[in-house]
Amino acid sequence: MPLEVWKKRALATVHEAVKAGDVNQLAMMVKNGASVNEVDLEHKFSPLHWASLTGSLECLHWLLWHGADTSDTTPQGWTPAHLAAMRGRDACMQALITNGAIVSSRDDRGCSAVHLAAAHGHSQTLQNILRSGADCNSADMNDWRPAHYAAFHGRLGCLQFLLKWGASVDDVDNNGNTPAHLAASEGHLHCLKFLVSQGVSLTHTLGARNDQGETPKDLAKRFYKQAVQQYIDAVENERDFPGEQEDLAFPAHVAALRGDLDTLRTLVESGIINLNERDNKGCTPLHKAAGQGHLNCLQWLLEMGADYNITNDASETPKDIAKRFAQLAAVKLLGGETLSEDSDEELNSTDPSFFDRHGVEGSTDTFEDVNLSTTQKKEGRMRAYRKIEEFERLLEIAKSNYRQLGGILEEDRSKRKEEKQAERTIEELKAQLEYERVRREKLECQLDDYRAEIGHLNKCLHDVQATAEEKSLEPIKEKKKLKKPRKNEAGGVLVRRIPEK
């Protein structure tokens, strides 16, 4: 019921207040004596159940703050986490997990929140549950694993998530059925193709027999699933499926499969092959690149004008193959959306727009039942912020009271430890500083001694050089004295005669 209709009528119970998303009315009713765990008479739901089901996030937070029981169950054995998983309430599921809700709780059929999220196609909620540590291989009363539920209901996105988190394609239920048997019996061709691609081999997956000796093909025949039957027939005629050994007659397909853009560009630009050339299975290079997620090849082929709507012999477009192999970036590049709206509606693989609507499931937190306006959301955020301030103030008061009673908080203990460590570090640094100061004084004294020694040596060197210089000048003076001419008494110069030989 729309929120405006709820506002026009008097809210008689806390359950109606939660369904209307009116947290003020909820608080007033609880203050007047209503219980946060009160069970309604018709559905046996607690307020927390209704908040999880309708996506009334603010009411859910208020209930959790005031001690609502996250483990309370309905007659069907559903906890609030079960209902959040059914409706894909991602934010509600995260709040429940944060507040200690046990997502592994089982209902009366043995289903946990993982089973219900997989069955209803809420892959984002499923991922949040798996991240909290839930088992992706837990079995219900019929030995159905989450992968069985995803395959039976045609939830490709959930199936891909489960296998990514370690689910097995070979697990069997109490009738010996694998997920491939269930996908074939319900005609979910896209899930069957994905399971084949993830199996050990083609023969192993499609040749598996249940307790009645039936293969997936036998079930497809029994339930008149023509598309699945035709696909299996085509696959059995070509044992080299899904193309592990490419025919060398199609080099462009091999290049696209390997992501070799240079070779692919050379082959196309030289005119050797056509952009939309088909191999012996009807696939084009665009199909090959899409299956492997080679975005560079995809981008170039699309820019060159390759036909992205062309189908192969299995009636698959390149986008279909990208979805089957969980190449989400390739799906988006080829014009698909990685997140759908709500995947609870009945699947119909004969619808041409089937993959556009049900390729990969995602978040379904759409608040269909509680449709809050922008103003109401703003008011809710303001209330939440005031609640934070109030809690912070109360927390400080509680800490102060605890300290006055002689208690030591962990933060105080950590602070004291840090202070002691800081004091110890300061003392060590002071000791190191004193050591360095004494060492510096010693080095300065040694430096003064070295300077004095250098001065003395310089003086000695100067004296030695002066003495050596004087000694070197004495022979020159003697020579000058010998060369000086002698004069006679008359003042003439005496000339020495050289005696004749």
Automatic annotation (TrEMBL):
InterPro entries: Ank_Repeat/CDKN_Inhibitor (IPR050776), Ankyrin_rpt (IPR002110), Ankyrin_rpt-contain_sf (IPR036770). The keyword Coiled coil applies. Gene3D superfamilies: Ankyrin repeat-containing domain. Residues 381-460 form a coiled coil. ANK repeats lie at residues 43-75, 76-108, 109-141, 142-174, 175-202, 281-313. GO terms for cellular component: nucleus. GO terms for molecular function: cyclin-dependent protein serine/threonine kinase inhibitor activity; NF-kappaB binding. Residues 471-501 are annotated as: Disordered. Keywords: ANK repeat, Coiled coil, Repeat. This is Ankyrin repeat domain 42.
